[in-house]
Amino acid sequence: MLSEPPVLESAAGPHTIINGKEVVNFASANYLGFVGHDKLLESCTSALEKYGVGSCGPRGFYGTIDVHLDCEARIANFLGTHDSILYSYGLSTLFSAIPCFCKKGDIIVVDEGVHWGIQNGLYLSRSTIVYFKHNDMDSLEKTLEKITALNKRAKKLRRYIVVESVYQNSGQIAPLDKIIKLKEKYRFRVLLDETNSFGVLGRTGRGLTEYCGVPIEKIDIVTAAMGHALATEGGFCTGSARVIDHQRLSSSGYVFSASLPPYLASAAITAIDILQQNPDLTSKLKENIAILWKGLSDIRGLSIASNPESPIVFLVLEKSTGSMKSDLQLLEDIADRALKQESIFVMASKRSTLDKCPLPVGIRLFVSSAHSEFDLLKACESLKRVAAAMLR
Amino acid sequence: MITIPYLTALTTYFSYGLLFAFGQFRDFFRKIFDWWHASNLEGYAPICLGLEDFYTRRLYLRIQDCFGRPIASAPDGWFDVVERYSNDNNKTLKRTDKISRCLNLGSYNYLGFAAADEYCTPRVIDSLCRFSASTCSTRVEGGTTTLHKELEECVANFVGKPAAVVFGMGYVTNSAILPVIIGKGGLIISDSLNHNSIVNGARGSGATIRVFQHNTPSHLEKVLREQIADGQPRTHRPWKKIIVVVEGIYSMEGELCKLPEIVAICKKYKAYVYLDEAHSIGAVGKTGRGVCELLGVDTADVDIMMGTFTKSFGSCGGYIAGSKELIQYLKYTCPAHLYATSISPPAAQQIISSIKVILGEDGSSRGAQKLARIRENSNFFRSELQKMGFEVLGDNDSPVMPIMLYNPAKIPAFSRECLKQNVAVVTVAFPATPLLLARARICISASHTKEDLLKALEVISQVGDMVGIKYFPAEPNKQQQDQQQQQPGKDTIKLD
What we know:
CATH superfamily of the largest domain in chain A: Type I PLP-dependent aspartate aminotransferase-like (Major domain)
CATH topology of the largest domain in chain B: Aspartate Aminotransferase, domain 2
Largest interface: A-B, 98 and 95 residues
Enzyme class (chain A): transferase
CATH topology of the largest domain in chain A: Aspartate Aminotransferase, domain 2
Strand order of the largest sheet of chain A: 3-9-8-7-6-4-5
Number of helices of chain A: 13
Catalytic activity (chain A): L-serine + hexadecanoyl-CoA + H(+) = 3-oxosphinganine + CO2 + CoA
Keywords (chain A): Acyltransferase, Lipid metabolism, Pyridoxal phosphate, Sphingolipid metabolism, Transferase
Mean pLDDT of chain B: 84
Structural class of chain B: alpha/beta
Number of helices of chain B: 17
CATH architecture of the largest domain in chain B: 3-Layer(aba) Sandwich
Largest sheet of chain A: 7 strands, mixed
Oligomer: heterodimer
Cofactor (chain A): pyridoxal 5'-phosphate
Radius of gyration of chain A: 21 Å
GO molecular function (chain A): pyridoxal phosphate binding; serine C-palmitoyltransferase activity
Strand order of the largest sheet of chain B: 3-9-8-7-6-4-5
């Protein structure tokens, strides 16, 4: 099976130390370079001294600290929605939010490439689930047509479309404007997971809605994990007041679990403040992505499967070796060699046995705005060398 | 294990009936009112169906100010509660800038690590500067640091098992582990009062679920015999795997689990034991190692031990400890390990430091003092409350003590009156407890001094008289003070 993952000896910034050697780090989703940022460390330190580490209680029983309320208000303010709700773990955000609104008998149309958190939430909700082809709008339209034709008594049923803005498993970006048109035509509600696009896409980093020019009121529920662009932990969900208030009492990951540690909430507030004051972070990130794309577009044996504007650059094998297991083994060998010989830290994407996603595995590079041009060019050269050596 | 007096049951049913009738009345008027105004969501079914949030809108919102009270300081022995006010009859609550300093009887702060600690906090800030607040990556990619490795070894040593794996959130630990270790064709037998995370994990696994009566080993044996004889539903083939899930301390009852008997039964019928020590790790036992140490059960007999770090260690996250093969298997398949961001490095350092303090490895005896203090505090508080005539649940040595309220009107009365006198308590009602059995739950901490406890007792006694919850006759103080604290008759009360 797998070997032990490499052990880091310093912070997971654009450069990190593994086994005493300094390597360029492409395996941390540190899109805006906030890991190791001074202001963040300062606000965390003052929060630690004031509040201690943990919050020692669920939100309903004295676990609500004023930084949580401030953080929720800040996020809602930044995105332009009415209110938001904080979860203490990124993965549990979606698998608690979905069973809140979808019960047995409801219909959910979902992309087949969504990540495990969403799949688990759908399974727990016991609704009828219909998959459509990954990022294919014709397939989505056909599916919606079929469902509304079959179900004439659809007045009482709640119907949802679940998509991710930037797919974790492939790096594709969902065409939100087309989805909104379909949603209004067939009367479905949209649930959008903006984990990898919050702080990245759009002119000021407000995510996919700004990028596609869609007003955020049209999306019913927006969720995101904060462990990527904002460099803290936890997740949030935002939407209209009715949506958020309902979750405060019936979302199991919110009610029955301890709240987010206060220093992480204050780190999130500081991160959003910095993002709002420095909009050039997102443009630097876009430049970096473009450089990496150009460098890797002619690599032999691997092809880029992700969108040119997504911060996740996803390389898949041009010719699969037959089974997913042997593909994974080959990709891991490539990543291993890149680390040991070229000092470039990349990882192959892993799949759990419980994951039902049919997309191919590949090597995933997370681009950060803190990477310098030299780092990116070095990465391109190294990967070309390794791929040429390992893939004949 | 509660008998409710008939008169109280009658009045409680009557109160709920009245609230329900009022709620339906108002809903009826709301429907007529809405019929006049068209809505702009034509063609969409409402996002929350009528009956789903009936309880929220008509019952919960009336007493909303008793729950979710924000605080403005660390949840230590004394903390600052933020005052809130409402303009529209409790529908929305707004924060003010005023705070009141209250005694904290509600937070899970068993050993007093919630606030900044002299040994732990400098090390936590150190690791923050070294590793930053988050690794932004999963454990199998770029998220394993030297701190994580050290933490897992430390936890495995502390709990007494060969290996351990740590996750960033306790709830996810349960819900993501059960689907991995058991699937279709397996059987999960869980205690009827298990926590929501275990129920979610069991449902997500696809195995068959059976429930046994709370903390009754004889009923567990009966269920096991029936199920093994029947086999899988429909095919009647033997079960692939049987797991019995119990908790160390049940958080709504304050009771300890009858672990020795349950382990004996599981050994006899070859079932696996899964122990969830969320509230008991670090808080009970001579050196804080949990219910196994307290009840004298060998840790090798319990197959999977799970726990959380939120309560006694003042941090966040959960762990699973077991044999090396089990942990190796979990690291390769568990989705919470493969897909979720790894635990934040400062939180990991807090756990390591607090374990060192508990074991006395920091060079002082603060750990042993804390453990002794929490034991004394809990036993003293419980016996005093029982002497005053309150109905208190839970076993001796457990730091969680629920006081029965029953009637829905007494819940906000108790909570608000105590807050007026600067004591902050937690009250729990439906749906976390059965409908008739609402209660107030006290969590004792090692950072409470004797004066704090005496003040709390005084306030609770006063409020208890006002609200009328002293269901048992009070004992005369002078004679009983010298006698033993253990009163076996009071501790085990049967529930029908």
